[in-house]
Amino acid sequence: MNIGILGLGTVGGGVVNVLNNNKKTIERRTGSEINIAHAAVKNINDETICSTKNILLTEDAFEVVNNPNIDVILELIGGIDLPKKLIEAAIRNGKHVITANKALIANHGNELLDLAKENNTNLLFEASVAGGVPILKSIEQGLGANKIELVAGIINGTGNFILTEMRDKGRSFHDVLKEAQDLGYAESDPTYDVEGIDAAHKLAILSSMAFGCKLEFDNVSTIGISEIEGEDVSYAGDLGYYIKHLGIAKKINDEIEMRVHPTLIPKTTLLANVDGVMNAVLVNGNAVGTTLYYGAGAGSDATASAVIADLLDIMNGTVNNDILGWKELKEFTNKNNNSIESIFYLRFVTSNESDVLDGISSTLKNHNISIESVIQKKIDGMNTHVAVITSKSRTSDITEAVNNIKEHDFVKGVVKIIHVETLN
Amino acid sequence: MNIGILGLGTVGGGVVNVLNNNKKTIERRTGSEINIAHAAVKNINDETICSTKNILLTEDAFEVVNNPNIDVILELIGGIDLPKKLIEAAIRNGKHVITANKALIANHGNELLDLAKENNTNLLFEASVAGGVPILKSIEQGLGANKIELVAGIINGTGNFILTEMRDKGRSFHDVLKEAQDLGYAESDPTYDVEGIDAAHKLAILSSMAFGCKLEFDNVSTIGISEIEGEDVSYAGDLGYYIKHLGIAKKINDEIEMRVHPTLIPKTTLLANVDGVMNAVLVNGNAVGTTLYYGAGAGSDATASAVIADLLDIMNGTVNNDILGWKELKEFTNKNNNSIESIFYLRFVTSNESDVLDGISSTLKNHNISIESVIQKKIDGMNTHVAVITSKSRTSDITEAVNNIKEHDFVKGVVKIIHVETLN
């Protein structure tokens, strides 16, 4: 099996290293040799993290996808436009393609999978979600007997690192973000990580696998973690919750909801205890019940582990055809965000008057929302914080109620609305 | 695809129910229909938990395995001798076989897999370990790029339920065991669960999958939980640990150690927080790092989920050939238990003399064992408890040291030796 690698950076270099280090183990599993024949790099004079011995190097990635001796292309460049053109060319040349590129799959997966189907090749992307954790294969094969009802994951390591540090050390969002950038966890432009776009890409992929529907990245409702303040982390803790940045996809009847947002989850759940840069995905199936998959969501060798798992499936002929073009896609309606039912955490900054809680609770009651628990705390001579856990309510009711509460004179600016999930 | 089911009890009945309830979802994944054609039951007049409409029922299981129209046999009877004969007959008849029978695979898997290989059929057993959790497929396929270094799992739900209740409610082992029997979690003869034999069956299977070696159930060193006392649970807690009943398989160079025993693990690890009847398996690969897989280890529909996952692999042609006969089995030496290195928890009941701790620590020191942390607690006018966490030491050194300590006059009977694992 001759493979061509586009990109010998963190992931591509990791793939070469793991293939070299674990050569015997991998060949035992495939019964045949893997030959890294051709690789494209940005600058042929740059150092790589892997050996390039016996690999033909080029700066023109199209040379690799057009090389007639190559059977499988590993696209590990990143970005969208160039890798899309390269993958299309590779597929048209009859080659199997493996990619770790979640942005590309989330945005153009439908057309690329159709193209692969037409050309009778495989397009695989296990490494695009949760790094080394074999979550897509687990959903497709291990849980294939189930109607999946819920997928909920910590699928962005940078965001989870920031929230973990904020909780454990009482640090501010901006302080931890800067450290994450210095450590190389976060990009210099951290938008994709902290505004939830990276998690939304991954959720779109998880959701299409779990429910057997087309990729619909544009329908993921996305809120990042940049608005989370130390006070919220602290009040959540007092109320029995940790704040995690979750991607959640739920199927209720024939409606699907997909949302990425900060979420209060009970401290006692396993997902609440997934800390630092680690990833975990909870999958709830109607036969198996709740399952959870945990591991490194990024990193050179961990991501390489998932890329090579796809390669082994191609070599062993164990690619589930269902991934290739979904035999019979289901039609689902995307649930209108306003109609989503959820428990909510609300926080208000109010004046110190004595009837504040009364005003809040009576307004909530007018919208059929009750208060399950509450923390009221005088901050100084001027300000009180009121943090509330609501009953399960329609999002539109919560929005209206909060707007009405804002009209009270006692409300002084900051109002937070954060989802609460019990994950039952 | 015509299937025959041996046994329509908890698991067999669950398979029929899940196949009926999720018919459309499953057919979307396979592209073809599944027909439950023939089933064997103990007594044809007994009620079953599933519909038997359109299923030909018999009390002679050999009728099913000899039915020429059947493509796949699901062996869901339990026991060893009868199912072994039935599976051998089915394989010789050219049928694929799926079983949930861990005792049978652990004891006779090598010869049955050889027979399947000779007859060019598949013998699959995902449901034999950790119920609905797709752990075998994850090791074989999702982590196929890795040299696996460690597998550590909570793989007996009954044992985990007992230990969780003892910890959370301060109940005694015998009290909880009786409740587990009343609830139907534990058999009336609980030996397999509480003495670790069931976990040892599963560990032997996990280990052969992880390391690519033959099944060696006889080489699993096994200690149950029946000797765990409330005091140990409590001191472990004070020292920062929970006691879990783990199956652990480690590969160090070309040696393998397989052991099932109560284990102190740090409270902060995910595995320590897997409670009640739930199962979880931690897998450490040299590329992916630490991963964890969690879910229901038993139950009708959850176990059925794993049985049907194997059926889907057969129907989709996605059976990893590596499972069928292991292309090239590695030779490993089984590590002598005495040479295993581990941290240990030791508990002594001593008299109330003042030099007790001195006597213990100096004897340990003579065997190059140091004390990492200690709890000394006067129980009454006569007795003191001393609980110690040791440095990492050879098992033989610990055994000798403890034997020497026992010779001191201050030691009064009970001495506990329990493994500690940091799972790093």
Task: Tell the overall outline of chain A.
Answer: elongated
Return the structural class of chain A: alpha/beta
Q: What is the name of the CATH superfamily of the largest domain in chain A?
A: Dihydrodipicolinate Reductase, domain 2
What is the CATH first-level class name of the largest domain in chain A?
A: Alpha Beta
CATH architecture descriptor text of the largest domain in chain A: 2-Layer Sandwich
Query: What's the N-to-C terminus distance of chain A?
Result: 45 Å
Unreliable spans of chain A are 323-327
User: How many strand segments of chain A?
Assistant: 18
What is the topological layout?
2 copies of one chain form a homodimer.
Chain A: E1 2-6, H1 10-21, H2 23-30, E2 35-40, E3 56-58, H3 61-65, E4 72-75, H4 81-92, E5 96-99, H5 102-118, E6 123-124, H6 135-142, E7 148-154, H7 157-169, H8 173-183, H9 191-194, H10 197-211, E8 221-222, H11 230-238, E9 241-252, E10 255-266, E11 278-285, E12 289-296, H12 300-316, E13 333-334, E14 341-350, H13 356-366, E15 371-378, E16 384-390, E17 393-394, H14 395-406, E18 411-420
Parallel strand pairs in A: 1-2, 1-4, 2-3, 4-5, 5-6, 8-10, 10-13, 10-18
Antiparallel strand pairs in A: 7-9, 7-11, 9-10, 11-12, 14-16, 14-17, 14-18, 15-16
Helix pairs in contact in A: 1-12, 4-5, 5-10, 7-8, 13-14
